[in-house]
């Protein structure tokens, strides 16, 4: 057998082991042909993927072959989980040890009043990715399927020629674990199935095996490794590895990398190095002490009951320790973000990259006696949002905005035709706020998951925030006069006009009876399907990241001279 035949056989073998894609041989273009490429217009014609670098080479679809005339920035989305937006009044609060986020804030437009579309993980993320409210995505709760046919920013950008990838958490429920990403570098930290389905047929019933309880508060403290630390260590590593790959790949496409951490989500357990930073922290006590149960609004009472609050006697010291662990985990995530931004800078991509920092929802952190999220109070519903873009001057924007706005805003920054995606999103392009050409419409929120017995909807309009639920009296707060949301103005005759105006807006926007019926039908379907799927053999939808080890490092279907050159960045220095 000749050497050539051996080589051909090995190539055939590699093709087979790669499972799905044709292997076109190592890239034999010279380093000069493949070297410089930042912010180059994409030429028409087929793009050549370097299979030795990109683990998922794909033939360029037709849409990538369009001729782009403008330079398009790369996009790095850094997402965190459960980071309270009130701690980011203008970048990170002074007391937070977050040097990298503070540096990022200094180069960003900071949106001080940014709201999640829904204060719970899966609904928030489906809405964030699609720019659609939960009533439209039908991702009502943490176990509702995100349908594959709903366009996300990953679809929009990919169709326009972007390489799209995700390192970390997105809590997609259902068999589609990509939703427009070409690749995921890690699995998810949360289950992809229907197991966490709430049940509106049994209002007030606690589902003990998966509902939150206050054990996160009583168990706060120090640990060097936890389930969540293991995950985020992996997320950061894969993100930096991906950035190195993006810096040296042969693919001319701009990229959009989403890096999504699970911290500072509870449990409030942190590495000692970060815990120790907050020994003298001035913010360990909540600004609003626990409210007497009888004085709470109906939804807050339900949330406390859902958290089994009677089983816990929470002390002031436990509250301080929980908040300390939470702040420490902000510092942990800040360090990881620093590692990522450092690679971005050293690979010389920093100045051509839009960097967006956001959280899915907040955490009440013991304010008024509440923990976690699941309500529209600012601690739960407000999130940090900062955007650093090559053409945007750093600034602070006070006007309320939404995580729904991310999709149209990214589309605008990437040079897409916004009108082409406008029908697919409930959000608005924030460039209009940044350049002062348009103010934003009132910000909308929805919640229809655990702790609720019927959907809640919210409107933040100017200084006011209204919450409506068919089962509860309305809540109306003046965020300017009463930022802690302690005085419900819904019964105040002096604000009757404001209430009537906002209630009219809610009535125009939502049919709450139909919303409730849709949620109940979705839950009921899953209460049939999920128990059935747990009988007999179980086929998990949890994402299995493909490693393609035969396409990494040194392999004999590669020309090693070319490989060493292509895997180096920068070249020739
Ligand atoms: Ca979350």
Q: Per the principal axes of the C-alpha atoms, what is the gross shape?
A: globular
Query: What structural class should be given to the helix and strand makeup?
Result: alpha/beta
Give the biggest beta sheet: 9 strands, mixed
Continuous helix count: 18
Secondary structure: number of strands: 15
Beta-strand content bin: 5-15%
- End-to-end distance: 42 Å
| Helix-residue proportion | 25-40%
Bound molecules: calcium ion
The value of Rg in angstroms is 25 Å
Estimate the mean pLDDT confidence: 89
Descriptive report:
The chain is an alpha/beta fold. The protein contains 18 helices and 15 strands. β12 and β13 (456-461) form a beta hairpin. α8 packs parallel to α11. It is globular. It starts with a helix and ends in a 7-residue tail after the last helix. Residues 1-69 have low confidence and may be disordered. The structure holds calcium ion (CA).
């Amino acid at each position: 057998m000749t050497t050539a035949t051996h080589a051909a056989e090995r190539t055939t073998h590699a093709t087979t082991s790669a499972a799905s894609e044709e292997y076109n041989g190592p890239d034999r273009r010279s380093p000069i042909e493949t070297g410089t490429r930042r912010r180059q217009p994409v030429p028409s014609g087929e793009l050549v993927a370097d299979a030795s670098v990109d683990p998922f080479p794909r033939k360029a679809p037709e849409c990538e072959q369009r001729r782009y005339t403008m330079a398009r920035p790369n996009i790095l989305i850094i997402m965190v989980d459960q980071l309270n937006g009130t701690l980011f009044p203008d970048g990170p609060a002074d007391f937070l040890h977050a040097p990298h986020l503070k540096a990022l804030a200094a180069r960003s437009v900071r949106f001080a009043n940014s709201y999640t579309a829904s204060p719970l993980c899966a609904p928030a993320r489906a809405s964030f990715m699609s720019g659609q409210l939960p009533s439209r995505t039908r991702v009502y709760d943490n176990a509702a399927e995100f349908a594959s046919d709903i366009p996300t920013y990953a679809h929009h950008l990919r169709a326009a020629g972007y390489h799209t990838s995700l390192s970390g958490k997105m809590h997609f429920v259902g068999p589609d674990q990509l939703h427009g990403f070409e690749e995921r570098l890690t699995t998810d930290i949360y289950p992809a199935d229907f197991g966490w389905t709430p049940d509106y047929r049994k209002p007030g019933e606690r589902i003990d095996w998966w509902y939150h309880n206050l054990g996160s508060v009583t168990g706060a403290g120090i640990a060097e490794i936890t389930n969540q630390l293991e995950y985020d260590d992996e997320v950061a590593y894969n993100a930096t590895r991906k950035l190195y790959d993006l810096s040296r790949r042969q693919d001319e496409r701009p990229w959009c990398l989403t890096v999504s951490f699970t911290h500072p989500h509870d449990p409030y357990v942190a590495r000692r190095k970060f815990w120790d930073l907050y020994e003298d922290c001035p913010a360990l006590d909540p600004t609003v002490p626990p409210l007497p149960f009888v004085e709470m609004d109906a939804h807050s009472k339900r949330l406390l009951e859902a958290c089994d609050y009677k089983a816990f006697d929470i002390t002031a010291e436990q509250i301080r320790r929980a908040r300390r662990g939470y702040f420490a985990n902000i510092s942990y995530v800040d360090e990881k973000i620093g590692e990522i931004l450092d690679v971005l800078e050293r690979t010389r991509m920093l100045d051509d990259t839009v960097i967006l920092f956001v959280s899915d929802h907040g955490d009440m952190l013991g304010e008024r006696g509440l923990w976690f999220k699941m309500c529209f109070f600012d601690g739960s519903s407000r999130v940090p949002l900062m955007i650093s873009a090559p053409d945007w001057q750093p600034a602070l924007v006070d006007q309320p905005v939404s995580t729904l706005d991310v999709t149209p805003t990214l589309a605008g920054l990437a040079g897409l035709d916004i009108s082409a995606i406008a029908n697919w999103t409930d959000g608005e392009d924030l460039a209009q706020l940044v350049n002062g050409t348009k103010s934003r419409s009132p910000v909308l929120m929805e919640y229809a998951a655990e702790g609720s017995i019927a959907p809640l909807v919210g409107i933040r309009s100017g200084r006011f925030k209204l919450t409506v639920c068919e089962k509860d009296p309305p809540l109306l707060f003046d965020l300017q006069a009463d930022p802690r949301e302690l005085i419900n103005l819904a019964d105040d005759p002096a604000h009757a006009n404001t209430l009537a105006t906002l209630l009219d807006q809610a009535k125009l926007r939502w049919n709450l009876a139909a919303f409730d019926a849709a949620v109940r039908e979705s839950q009921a379907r899953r209460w049939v399907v999920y128990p059935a799927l747990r009988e007999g053999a179980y086929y998990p939808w949890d994402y299995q990241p493909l490693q393609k080890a035969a396409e990494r490092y040194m392999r004999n279907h590669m020309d090693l001279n070319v490989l060493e050159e292509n895997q180096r960045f920068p070249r020739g220095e």
